[in-house]
Each structure stands twice: as structure tokens, then as C-alpha cells.
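If it is no trouble, can you show me the amino acids of a protein and the C-alpha cells describing how it folds?
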Amino acid sequence: MNCCPPDVTPAVALFRSLGDPARLAIVSRLAEGEARVVDLTRLLGLAQSTVSKHLACLRDCRLVDSRTEGRQSWYSLSRSELIDLLRSAERLLAGTGDAVALCPVHGEPAQAEPA
């Protein structure tokens, strides 16, 4: 027996695709405008191959588009609704304070205080 009705499956996949810190950082950067892999690599401090894999994931989810100009590819968000989702998430997080970050199941592990 499934825990969730089938109609939430696409939403779960969407949030999983945004659940990786690097992919969320890429989406946040692309909300500001187009970027190349080299731009994202510098921003994230990750290898080009890693950034490319994250972009491929986001493209497969149809969240990111690319266009070629010469030998370079420029990436952008494919849906403006994604910007709205990010802004809504920021407002929600501002309203919940540290509750999400401190969640014992999904938040960051608590740091042990020095003795």
C-alpha cells in the first residue's frame, strides 16, 4: 500500500529535483538570468562535469532550457513559475523561522557544543 495518493507523485519529483543544494543554487542563479556552465562552475566551486550533470537533471525535468551561441551554451529557467515558487519558499521560510532548519527528520544535524 502506498503512503501517498498518486496525484502527489509529480510534486514529490519536483521537490526532489530541487532538493539538492547545487541544483537549488543553479535554479536560484538562473532566476536572475541566463548563465553558462563556466559561470555556474565559478559560482558553486564545483567541477564542470558535476555542474553539467546537475543541469542535465534539471533539463530532464524540463525546469531548465539551453540555447547555443557559437561554442557556448546558455542556460535559463524554462518556466517563470519556478521563480514564483522560489519566492514563495523564501516567504514561507521567513515565516517559519528556524523550524524547518531544525526539523529532527529533514533539517541540519545539530552541532555538538564544545566541552
About this structure: The first helix runs from residue 9 to 18. The beta strands are 64-69, 72-77. The chain is about 50% helix and 10% strand. The CA atoms of residues 93 and 100 lie 7 Å apart.
